[in-house]
Write the structure tokens for this entry.
Amino acid sequence: MRFPKIPRRWFYYLLAAMVLLALYFLFQVLDGWEEFAAGRSSTFDLHAILFQEAHTHLISGLLRIAVLLIALLATRGAFASARKSQERLERILETAADGIYFVNRSGRMTMVNAAVEKMLGATRAEICKTKYNHPTWKTTTPDGKPFPDEEQPFSRVIKTGAPVHGVEQYLQRADGKQILVSINATPLKREFGQVIGVVGTLTDITERKRAEKELETTTSLLKSLFDNLDEFFFSVDVATGRVLQASNACEKMFGVSAQSFMDDPNSWRRFIHLDDKSKVADARSEMSQGTTTIQEMRIVDSGGQPRWVEAKFKPIMDSSHRPVRFDAILSDITERKRGERALIESEERYKNIVENANDIIYRTDANGRFVFYNAKASQLLKYSADELIGRHYLDIIDPDFRKETRQFYRDQIVRQIPNTYHEVVVIGKDGTKLWLGQNVQLLTEEGRLIGFQSVARDISERKRAESEAQRHVEQLSTLNEIGRTVSTARDLTSVLDTIYEQVSRIIPFDAFYISLYAVETDELSFPLLIDGGKRYLSERKKPIHGSDLFMTLTTGIPRRIIRTPEDMVQPPKPGTGVGDQSRQSAALLFAPLFVKDNVIGVISAQSYTANAYSEEHLQLLTSIAYQAAIAINNARLLEALYQSEDRYKELYDKAPIAYYSVDASDGRIRMANQTMAEMLGYAMDDLIARPIFDVYADTPFGKEKAKQVFERFRAGEEIHDEEVQMLTAEGKPLWVSISAQAVRDAAGSVVYSRSMAQDISKRKAAEEGLRQAEEKYRGIFENAIVGIYQTSMEGKWLTANSALARTLGYESPAQMIDEMSDLNRQFYVDPNRRADFVREMEEHDVVWGFESEVRRRDGSIIWFSENARTIRDQADNRIGFEGTTIDITDRKQVDRLKSEFVSVVSHELRTPLTSIRGSLGLIAGGVAGEIAPKAKSLVDIAYKNSERLILLINDILDIEKIESGKMVFDNRPMELLPLLEQAVEANTGYAEQYGVKLLLNSQLPSVMVNADYGRLTQVVTNLISNAVKFSPRGGVVEIALAQRKANVRVSIQDHGSGIPEEFQSRIFQKFAQADSSTTRQRGGTGLGLNICKAIIEKLSGRIGFESQPNVGTTFFFDLPEWRDESAAPTAPAKTRILVCEDDYDTAALLQLLLQQAGFAIDLAHTAAQAKMLLQKNHYGALTLDLALPDQDDIAFIHDLRENESTRALPVIVVSVRAEQGRVAVNGDAVKVIDWISKPIDAKRLIGAVNCATAHAPKPAVILHIEDDDDVFQVAALMLQDIARVEHATTLKQARERLSHEHFDLVILDLEMPDGSGLELVPLLQAQIPPIPIVVFSVDEISKETAAKVSAVLIKSRTSNEKLVETIRSLVPTPQPVIAGGE
Amino acid sequence: MTPDLKRILMVEDDPDIQTVAQFALEAVGGFNVQVCGDGKRALEQTLAFQPDLILLDVMMPGMDGPAVLKALRANSQMSGTPIIFMTAKVQPQEVAHYKELGALEVISKPFDPMLLSDMIHQIWEQKYG
């Protein structure tokens, strides 16, 4: 820049002058102000001061200017230095690389430096002519947009006063080209902010921009290249481990996007296969040294897929030679790896095949020298791995095979056969010979032979087996031949010859004999004897004890003997050598000839050579001997048979079965035995040669059938048990069963028969009888009045008789069966009835009186009562039901009418009674006012009787219900005691009326019965009120509850007069009261006890009483105790055994043994315990140790026998001292089942216990023949501890029962409805053993009769005790059965 | 609190029993008793008399006892009145049936006139006491 050239001196002068002048005027003004301020001048006239007084003060002013000029001159130096620095600045501006410019406020370029000139290609003068809107400055932005005027940087800066920086813009050069510049512009401002111009710089950025652009292109090119590479590239910051960059191949490599790969702090390490993490560590350590490494490693992608990669890790080092990051390139080499592995595997496989082959593999060169052989070869041949290399193959071939082998190879070469097979024997290093089967391959190269390769297998085993097999075939055929001889040869000589012949084929020998032993003479014979090829004649001699022959003969054991040379020096054992005595055998075989279990002789083969025989030879000879023995025996038997032909003939003739023989060709009888002739009534001569059909009847089962059978026989069939009708000589038909076997000629054709015939006429007659009987039953079935049927399980009629069909309105059974196909729906009215029926059947197998409404054909409904049972097949499966039906419609009708009647009547009776009793009750109660005493007593009577009438009606209703089976019992388990308490309480008031006290005495606080509460209360109340009525005033009625075996007993005891004996038997009968006066005295209906009995029996109980005149009566009833079955399910009762044993282990053993045998066991360890248990429980048997700690055991047994309840208990002694015990007790009354010593023989123990319990005493059974039920009941009750009492109410019934049941005693009433009991006496005495008879009757009997019976008791004269005692004495006391320990 | 038991309506077709029972209830029990002979009347009288308890016979001409009970129960004004059956038909299943119908209790005929009132009191106490 150039300032206008003004002489600087002048400028200073002028400036100094102006300053002086200014100072002059300043002083003037100051003076004027002083005077005005001092009041010396009245005005302050600035104009006058300045111009009028100027020349007056000019001189002093000039003085002052001079002073100032001097000061001014002093400043000249400063200006000069400023000027210098300006020049320096100008030089810098001129030489600056960037353009520098000034623009004035109007936008014109005022100054530019050289750089601008260069940039724009124009001179300074030219440039300074331009304004901001000149095309030079107003071209385009880098992206090609034109600048509007206001956006031009200069103009913008001028306008806004704000600087701009780095505006990139094209400028137009003078030559028209454009250059890209970066413009900075700063406003030049005055002190008040007014913009007076712009100064700034221009930088030519064309080149930079171009370079930048070029770089960008290259980068994007690289990037796209980089992203599209298959190799995955990433780089990692070493310090942080973070991935800085990752290529898109990431997706392909790991299955994750490059971005997520980079975001994951652990990304690349996670994909490395676990086993290859170490490789990464290796790479890292190498990289820290600055080395680039390449690793093959496995990665696992995000899908879990492993693959092989080749990873190249390249570290990037900083200046201090430390790695800052590393770049990694991963290439997928999975495919390659796979290929590699496949190759390796395949190679390995082949190597393995060769090395581990079961085959020998070897190779020779063209000269036949080994170049290779595998492990198997060296293993088999015993040569080490390279021992054979270089040796000739013939060296290992067995010399016998060398020639053949050489020939074989030559052939192969000459005939150019690439593969051949041959078998050869080779010799191993240790001399063992091996059979090899080898496949030999010619190895050629370009048509030239280079060697052989063999794959060979050890076939020694096969070869051995082959020769073995051949030998076996030979042996078998020999044995077979002997076997055949057995069945064909008839005489001993030919048998022996065959044996000799066959044996010589398979067993080498120098001497051979067969020796037979005859028991009768104790002699050996030698029917066959060969020595040194010479056959000797048979000789007989006694067997010599101890000889080898003798040993085999007596023991039956085959023997093989090898003589050592030392043995041979000894003289031969006597009796062994036969034939040629000059030579001794060194090897001997002896085999027994067995027939069944007897040794009949010995067969022996002998050789002069010591090692001639193996064990196998002995076995062979034994087998031969087995066959030979049969053959010899057969031959001998046959001989014997011939000798006994006569005897045989007799047997044949006298056989109980008819034998005969028919000629197959002409059907004539060839032969027959005597039995046959007799059976048919022919003379033997008459029978022989008669055509067989002559002896058959002229019926379908006669000739006709015989002809068919004969044809079948001729066709070769065996005939079995054909039933035919023959004809006797007298012309009577005869049923026989015939069988026949064919006898064939050598060609196998049937020659004649061996037939037999058996007379079956008796059986046939029986069958006929059966058939007739069946017909008869069928008749019964058809003609029965009751319906009879069979149905299937599913509900179909199978059979039905006419009566049933008729009753149901069908014309015939067939029609009914046809039309009524579903009993469930069509027969029963109630659709569930059939199901009820089936259920009953399943539970009981029978139904009895099963009443149902059923439909007739016309739809009308009738009542049926069915009795039916289940039909089972032989395997015991249910297959259906059969039963009878009765139409009970009428009876039902009557029942209904009766029950309606009773119900109505009782209601109708009650209604008037209600008012009668009510009225009387009120009057008697005084409610209606006072009545006269006489009237009162009458009213009381009326009232009492009305009460009785009511009770009577109630009882009649009950009886009716019981008898019609309509009394409903709502049985449920309940405590018995509370019921009794309640009954006692309810009756206390009533008892008080009679002055009687009720006492309840229970031994059982808690006992349950399954009963109907109301009904049971009714019984108890009835019995209590009876007892009260019959008690004397002030008396006590005791009500007791006690256990009685499985039952509970409730008893009600009074202390009255007792029941008259003659009445006792009728007490439970209806309207039974001792006498009518009682009724009047005591009230009651006479039905109470009958009802009680019925109710108790319905509750499965039993009622009874004991009475003594003037002592009192006890009524009681027993009910089964109810136990919670669900709590303790009772297994089917096992017999309980008491084991009494002090040793705990033995006790446990006994318990185990007996439990396994199915017994229930209680253990007692002392005699006291045992006694306690025996009192409490019932046992089937007792096992007893003889060493109990607390009591002498024998004494214990005696104790048991003393005691009534254990007298019969079977005892089994199990003891170490059993034997002494037996002696000690011997002869004593004590019965002991068995004595078993320890250690225990389990079998014997269980046997003894089984025996004891099987014979455990059964209660005696008594038949009480008595028409009065009550007498029976009473007797049964009294005798219940002694015996089971069965009842027969008629003689007929008694006879029936006696005919098929066993009774130990009979109690006989003489007055029976169907005759006198005495009629039975002969029958009873005829029983074996005779049954004791106790006559228990009202009548006396004659002395003769009394003599025939055991006891006579007169009813009403006999006390209960007497009866019980008498019977006890007559009933056999159960005794244990004594099973011997012998 | 036990409801009052003073007024008893007795429905009974047999005039003798009517008389005896009424006598027993009034003289022995001290109840205020009305009687009627058939079911139809019983319904009318229940409305008029508003008894605390009805003693109802079972076997009656026309409406029988259970029918009367049902009719009473069907009428909202009378449905709350307790009923005791008094009958000779006292088979266990019959008694169960009456109770199912809603009877308070069943008194069997013939009854003891001296004890009848006590019995009714007892039943009352048992149910409401």
Summary: The radius of gyration of chain B is 13 Å. Chain B has a mean pLDDT of 90. The longest helix of chain B spans residues 113-128. DSSP finds five helices and five strands in chain B.
